[in-house]
Amino acid sequence: TWGGAAGGMAAAAADSFRPLSADDEEQLPIELESLCMACFRRGATRLLVTRIPFFREVIVGSFTCGSCGWSNAEIQSAGRIQARGVRYALAVRSRQDLNRTVVKTDCATAGVPELHFEVPAFSQKGVLTTLEGILDRAIAGLEQDQPDRRKVDTEVAGKIDEFISKLKGLKEVEPAFTFILDDPSGNSFVENPRAPQKDDALGVTHYRRTAQQAALLGLEEEEEEDPAVSAEDLRNEVLQFSTNCPECNAPASTNMKLIPHFKEVIIMATTCEACGHRTNEVKSGGGIEPLGTKM
């Protein structure tokens, strides 16, 4: 696999990121020899470090094994997990919208609400493609096991065939539909062909991750300070600590509280449940004042 190689290259290749362009003849992939995870022989990994316009740096990688023919492709963000998640909502109205560049990380979900269709997070590797490529990938995934399904359960296979037909219909944009891409890591992207101008068909929302989303990303949720517990609240709270009864030496509890709206004066009261002995005491919590007080 190429994940380790890609991660180690990110810092070293910081100055090598060039805008993604088919016309850039100098933008050549880096080729590395790596292990095939299917046959455990040597294969070739090609890595391309690039910058997507109006987005950020990414590393595109593909692996091909000359021995067994196994291959795969993947995309990784060259940056860190963003401070907030991101949700793209694209109103697809023409076939031109299907040509928009899409970066979908492995932790992102993609879907079409009109068909109640969703590609769950972590079900696919990250990919740099187009919206049409997202649909083609979903169709190919559903068609892959259809021959076996037809042998086992023709009814289920028939329903999946109907759904595949609906997905293929989306490629004709009849009718128009909505494409949703939701990524809690904030590293997915849907192209705005009018950038830097606003695209009325594309809505972008940045949101705060939930505790569950942070856990899926391997992040520790920052614990928020309880606003109810403040220094003033502690001053008004009755504190309790363990002590021994001065009469019978049995375990007892002493309650302690500061006198509100006054100087540092502490009231202490001890009650022994064993013998019933009680004590009350007032202690100064500060230094001696320079002047006395007569009332």
UniProtKB/TrEMBL annotation:
GO BP annotations listed: axon development; DNA replication; mRNA processing; positive regulation of gene expression; positive regulation of protein import into nucleus; RNA splicing
GO molecular function, one term: translation initiation factor binding
Domain Zinc finger ZPR1-type: 34-192
Top-level taxon: Eukaryota
Record bears the keyword Zinc-finger: yes
GO cellular component, one term: nucleolus
Keyword tags: Cell projection, Cytoplasm, Differentiation, Metal-binding, mRNA processing, mRNA splicing, Nucleus, Zinc, Zinc-finger
Cellular compartments annotated: Cell projection, Axon; Cell projection, Growth cone; Cytoplasm, Perinuclear region; Nucleus, Cajal body
Similarity-based family: Belongs to the ZPR1 family.
Protein name, per record: Zinc finger protein 259
Species name: Micrurus surinamensis (Surinam coral snake)
